[in-house]
Amino acid sequence: MASESCDVCERSVRIAGGIGDLWNFAFESTQGMTLELADGSEFFLCFECMEALPDDHEPTADDVAALRERTEPVEEGGRDHFWHWG
């Protein structure tokens, strides 16, 4: 199983399909993905943070920065807990 930290909430999320999944037959779904935004910037975001991006225009790095400012990072050891937007 591979994982990566969300660039907004810092939660470690699962990335399915790695070589580890071949050996342990894990069939869990991916919990995030890398997005290339309209301004050419790239971020790895969990699905919950993706949903919080604006949907009235193409998101940019400024939108990710604004989301990061109003999102409290997940505390260490709390990776399975939800975080709160301020």
Strand order of the largest sheet: 1-2
The termini sit apart by 32 Å
Strand content: 15-25%
Radius of gyration from the alpha-carbon trace, in angstroms: 14 Å
Q: What is the H/E order?
A: EEHEEHH
What shape does the CA trace take?
globular
Number of domain units? 1
Counting DSSP E segments of at least 2 residues, the number of strands comes to 4
Protein name: Small CPxCG-related zinc finger protein
Organism: Halorubrum kocurii JCM 14978
Pfam family, one: DUF7561
Describe it:
The protein has 86 residues and is α+β, with helices and mostly antiparallel strands. It has one domain (3-70). It has helices at 19-24, 47-52, 61-69, and strands at 2-5, 12-15, 32-36, 42-46. Strands 1-2 form a two-stranded antiparallel sheet. It has a two-stranded antiparallel sheet with strand order 3-4. Strand 1 (2-5) and strand 2 form a beta hairpin. The longest helix is centred in the last third of the chain and has 9 residues, at 61-69. It is globular, with a radius of gyration of 14 Å. 17% of the residues are buried. The model is unreliable at 78-86 (pLDDT under 50).
